[in-house]
Amino acid sequence: MRKTRFSISTTHYILLSFLATILLGSVLLALPISSASGKATPFVDALFTATTSTCVTGLVVVPTVSAWSLFGQIVILILIQIGGLGVITIMTSIAVMLHRRLKLSDRLLLQDSFNLNTMSGLEIFVKKVIKGTLLVEAIGACCYMTVFIPEFGIKGVWISVFTSVSAFCNAGIDILAENSLCNYVVNPIINITTCILIICGGLGYIVWWDLLCVCKEKREKKTSFWRSLTLHSKIVICTTALLIVLGGVLILLFEYNNPNTMQNYSLFEKIEIALFQSITTRTAGFATIPQENFSNSSAIVCLLLMFIGGSPVGTAGGIKTVTFAVLVFSAIATIKNQKEASVFGRSISKEMIGKATAVTGVSFATLFLATVLLSAVTDANALDVVYETVSATATVGLTRNLTSSLSCCGKWIIIATMYLGRVGPVSLAVAFSFKREKKNIIKNPVEDIRVG
What we know:
globular; two-stranded antiparallel ribbon; 2 strands; mainly alpha; single chain; 452 residues
């Protein structure tokens, strides 16, 4: 009988690189120098913080602003940046800066980490990702400084940089206060800057470059802007805009007269709060209103937005906007009895529909398992538990005040859920599968079954 051989694939390297970064970050955060009190932090809390930072989630068991020293906050910020860009991207960018030629294995790692369909021009792509990220984060930090420097003095520079990186990477971790951005609920500069950074990180790098290329092409050839965009960019832009607007409208309607959230604000301020909530649930994790104050209707809307998340090849989590759109158009095609799903005059391949179904199914299975396990070890109500597990699975970071009260078992469950949510349940399943050689591929006979 032939033995099954376990081989290290590119997906293994991605999973292990994230795991190694988390463990290294945990060791550093567990040191007394990382703690604001000068005492060693319990390892489970250090591991939780390192995981939520590297997986750009934002759930915290100890307040970032008061529990960690400057050294600890620097470690957290580095982990957020690494997690947002990806460990493989950071390693490759260093190699590119050292003028080292990328080997085929390096290119495969990059292709898998960015979920790209081609290996051509990867060095240029990585350079653009790094430069674009640093530029956007720098602009965001400058905008924050107009508020934080007058308020905090020179310390406002560090707060601005930290908040900008965290917002762009969709991490949702801040060093302002223990209540996130609730003190700036109607501050237009903070709200607008944060929302733009979240959207930029969530759109994905492929959409960035497509928009830039089309703008350049439009100036040179004066072509139609919308028609020149790729199908991927069109789906991302339309789905993102639809979810933000629809989510904002529903939250505004459900919370309009809620005394715990919006009742005492003007109409313009209510719209600002609703749109911010709709955007931050797309895996960002910042809060201007305590999540436990929202009505059950708004919480359910937020659960859907969190589960969908941002877009592929970006800093956001969730099943992704394109996955959601593919499933919707596939369902519409089935309802209309059409042979193939199509959008913007282009057909969607069965392979993409199958992948979208698998991603959603495995993500939901991970969410379901985490919810059951967390419910077994905590006395919190069902909505708070589901909110916590969806937030962890989709790497959002919003909580209905449950994270800080988690037991040791609860912390381990959320740690595992955040890791699975970041690296991707499907990638994890593929990574630990064994490759078997098949000489003869025999197709099984087809027989009709009944669905629905």
